[in-house]
Please model this.
Amino acid sequence: MELIIFLTLLILGYSFGQWAEKKHYRSIISREKTLNRIPAVASRYPPAGQQHQQALVMGSTVISVDYFKRFIATLRNLFGGRVTSYESLIDRARRESLLRMKEQADSMNAEMVFNIKYETASISKGRRNTIGSIEVLAYGTALIPMTP
Amino acid sequence: MLISNMELIPGKRVQKHLGLVQGSSVRAKHVGRDIAAGLKNIFGGELKGYTELLQESRDEAMERMREQARAVGANAVLNVRFSTSSVAQGAAEIYVYGTAVTLE
Model:
């Protein structure tokens, strides 16, 4: 009986997880294309030249791993090596956070965002200390052209 | 009050350095969100409730930092950093800190 529950969860996790991930990646890629006009750079100082207004912008995402991926990651703990199932999770969270930050900058008519910092925290740990969900925060300073 | 994660503001001179100011906020989520998050742990995906919750507590932490900066007579907080840590099962602490200065 327990095995049946386990297998159902595994199948549910796999199918919904893969579907959600593909859908999320599609939306990330299309939004990245439209928001590419706002460059986000990690340089600490703004480009010299004209005067700008500054504003702090940020975006954050909390994302959770699915049952199947967690199972795969537990197996990986035995053999070692790259945990690709978590890599894609964190990659999605980072890109999504950066996009949300850019969307906020876009709503302020910003030209670019610089001094980007990322911050990652695992906020809820599952049983046996496996990663349940992670939060990624991206923040930076948006440069808004002065209105004449 | 200007809050920025830059170390210097171009075109403005720092008149007075007033030290570190900080704000923190610890929040737990309510049971309904916990159940939804439990389901999401099977299917995977974004936990919208938690994103909102952390955003709210980040705003609160920033507000506390702003109050502290106002109390020491600053008009700007520079070099702001954020940090998040989970202090207990289901509760997260958001910590914001920066340098309070007066700009001319």
Notes: The beta strands of chain A are 52-64, 112-125, 131-145. The longest helix of chain A spans residues 2-35. Chain A touches chain B through 45 residues (CB under 8 Å).
